[in-house]
Hints:
Rossmann fold; 2 domains; six-stranded parallel beta sheet; 320 residues; 14 strands
Amino acid sequence: xxxxxxIGSAGQIGSELTLKLREIYGGDNVVAGIRKTxxxxxxxxxxxxxxxxxxxxxxxxxxxxxxxxxIIINMAAILSATGEKDPMMAWNVNMxxxxxxxxxxxxxxxxxxxxxxxxxVFGPSTPAENTPQETVLKPATIYGIxxxxxxxxxxxxxxxxxxxxxxxxxxxxxxHETLPGGGTTDYxxxxxxxxxxxxxxxxxxxxxxxxxxxxxxxxxxSTIDLMHADFNKLRHHCDFNVGAxxxxxxxxxxxxxxxxxxxxxxxxxxxxxxxxxxxxxxVDDSPAREQWGWQPDYDLDAMTRDMLxxxxxxxxxxxx
Length: 320
């Protein structure tokens, strides 16, 4: 049985991915890598955890040897909106951290490294509709720049050293388990919480803003499907487009209003509008579908129903 280290296990995706992998591989075989010295809750209760800082290569190597890790999933990243506030921190974590992961993995002959990318690799000059797998990559954010470099670096390690490095370009990820963490698509999560709690929401992008999105169950599915894919069948490695749905902020609000008719929403775009405007409206993910069988399960209304159900259940439990 493979031993897996998920770096960034306390993050939005990392926390849920770690628990899902423990269901598949067994709790003892999936190590939660976190920046903290201690954690509580499901991550601590269902399997081992260890302090991991991707900017500390020596410490990372010690952890990999301690748990005899075969697979690294590097979810550690400073996201788009937070990265614009502190570009040097984003570069240090996203780039220096990634080089550390790849170099230590090479030295220790780690079986597989999975490094997610993002639609942030695209920019204003990229075709906005059905954005191709291979296209212009001129991002407008430091986050996007680090992700482009990360894709190229991962591909370099595949070609130069024969390593198994994989990655996929996440769209906006929507989840009811973990609150937003400094991304440009945070509004697509916040609206659900505010709709249930207050029946009103002020959106920080305009009503017409359309972006590719994905519900967390599909995010986990795409990640694990790529992990399990036959390496010999992959013609791409670190830059797979993955799509599920695309909708505007107004269409999202309309979907929520179907189930919360009294929802009041207004739009007050801030600095994140420019970031959103530089990203695609939709992506072409046919290479992922052809090379490893990617297929999403959720559309907008199915996601909305499940999000509202889960948030209401969570709030009810908090009141007890």
